[in-house]
Design goal:
This protein is mostly helical and 163 residues long. Helices cover 56% and strands 4% of the residues. The protein folds into two domains: 3-56 and 127-162, no CATH class; 64-125, no CATH class. It contains nine helices and two strands, in the order ααααααββααα. The longest helix has 15 residues, at 34-48. The mean pLDDT is 97.
Length: 163
């Protein structure tokens, strides 16, 4: 991971309590323009952040896999779903399928995903700051602040707008 990205995440870690309080206030505030502002900050953050220079999400956290994800990945890898599940997945404490190992077994040394076209929906939608109904995703956005430098930048921007 680029040093600049590590620095962004380190700054977020240093402000963890402040960020947590901000999210608690934001949940109470329920701003009408949250989606628009967050989407705009997302676009701005990704002018500076290149996922292929980072891949921290793929190295440090795994997606939740739904049945459709398992079917799509199994088909891509030319495996039966049961074989794919046995080989690559485990059931977590919430009874959801997740990868057995981190980093993601499909992450290459070059940070490219070897199953990109068939990747799980959770990966397709990550980091969730480009979507609608951001208010409903505030908890995951808080957690992603410490994983994804782009989300850290989005949250910094949100704090400037709503503080």
């Amino acid at each position: 991971m680029k040093e600049a990205y590590k620095a962004i995440l380190s700054q977020s870690q240093l402000k963890k309590k402040e960020i947590k309080r901000f999210f608690e206030r934001l949940k109470k505030l329920k701003p009408n323009n949250l989606d628009r502002i967050t989407n705009q900050l997302h676009d701005e953050a990704f002018t500076d952040i290149d996922c292929l220079q980072c891949a921290n999400c793929c190295r440090s956290t795994g997606p939740l896999l739904k049945d459709k994800d398992i079917e799509r990945l199994s088909h891509h890898l030319k495996l039966k779903p049961g074989v794919f599940t046995e080989r690559h997945l485990r059931i977590d404490e919430d009874q959801d399928y997740v990868f057995k190992q981190l980093p993601c077994p499909f992450l290459g040394e070059d940070h490219y995903c070897s199953v990109y076209e068939s990747r799980p929906n959770a990966c397709r939608n990550y980091p969730h700051t480009q979507q609608r109904d951001i208010y409903q995703k505030l908890t995951i956005t808080y957690h992603n602040t410490f994983i994804c430098p782009a989300v850290s930048k989005v949250v910094d921007g949100l704090m400037k707008v709503y503080t």
